[in-house]
Amino acid sequence: MGSDDSSAIKLEGQLPKCLTGIQGLDEITGGGLPQGRPTLVCGGPGCGKTLFGMEFLVRGATLHDEPGVFVTFEERPEELAQNVASLGWDLGKLEAGNKLLIEHIQVERSEIEVTGEYDLEGLFIRLGGAVDAIGAKRIVLDTVESLFAALPNELILRSELRRLFRWIKDKGLTAIITGERGDKTLTRYGLEEYVSDCVIDLNVRVKEDISTRRLRIVKYRGSLHGTNEYPFLIGDTGFSVMPITSIGLDYPVSSERVPTGIPRLDTMLDGRGYYQGSSILVSGTAGTGKSSLAAAFAQATCAGGGKCLYFAFEEPVSQIVRNMRSLGLDLDRHVEAGCLKFHAARPTTFGMEMHLLTMFNLVKESAPRTVIIDPISNLSMAGNEDQVKSILTRFVDFLKGRNITTMFTDLTSGKVAGEYTETTISSLMDTWILLRNIETNGERNRALFVLKSRGMEHSNQVREFVLSGKGLELTDAYLGSTGMLMGSARAAQEAREREECVLRRQELQGRQRTLEARRAALEAQLAALRQDLVTMDDELAVVGAEAKAQETALASDRAEMARIRKVD
Amino acid sequence: MKEPTNRADDFEKALQDRGHQKYVLRLYVAGMTPRSRESISAVKNLCEEHLKGRYEIEVIDIYQHPELAKAQQVIAAPTLVKELPLPLRKFIGRLTDEERILKGLDIQLKD
Question: How far apart are CA A77 and CA A62, in angstroms?
Answer without folding.
Answer: 19
